[in-house]
Amino acid sequence: MLTVTTEDHHDVVMVRHFDARPALVWLAFTQAEHMAQWWGPSTFTARAEMDVRPGGAYVIDMIGPDGSVSPMKGRYIEVIEPKRLVFDFDISEHGPAFNRMLRETYIACGGGADDPLGTCNTITVTFEDEGHGTRLTFRQGLATAAERDAYVKMGTAEGYAESCLKLDKLLASMQLFFHG
To answer: pLDDT of 118-155, one tens digit each?
Structure first.
């Protein structure tokens, strides 16, 4: 089950248990061929290029059922295997329709019409050993509470929950491969 909180002033924090050891969950987050299998909502596919090291870049393209591409990109800030990943998360190239919807939702959440609206934020992912599994914490740091609320209202948690279900399936198949 995914737990979502907005306990911190500008953060969305999502916590989920996975029935796989941290080293395996780490591989799913840091190898492009695995990331492409689970990132994005259930009706989306993805392609990924990743250079997982401090300063290294990544690009993940989420591909919608209609063929539309929603790119996200960034650079890794901190990489501590298999404990912690910190990276910039830039969705500025998602396209005008998404940016319009984000702006409208931001205003509805109390943001100003002329405020600069960040489409780049910082993600911190921690992988904690939890019995025979992993407690994964995904923290999305945003610039303002209104921006945080806009992302939540637009379905950040629902999309991540769908990604987690895809990740569960991938981890189950990876465990069979690695542990026979």
So the answer is: 677 899 999 999 988 999 999 998 888 888 899 889 88
Region 3-25+80-179: CATH code: 3.30.530.20
Q: What percent of the chain has pLDDT over 90?
A: 65
Q: Where are the domains of the chain?
A: 3-25+80-179
Place of tokens 């992912």: 125
Q: How far is CA 156 from CA 48, 50, 162, in A?
A: 20, 22, 10
* Secondary structure class of 60 (helix, strand, coil): strand
Burial classification of residue 12, based on how many CB atoms lie within 10 Å of its CB (0-12 exposed, 13-18 middle, 19 or more buried): buried
Q: How many Å separate Cα 44 from the centre of its chain? A: 14
Q: Name the pTM for this structure.
A: 0.90
How many Å apart are CA 52 and CA 35, to the nearest integer?
Answer: 12
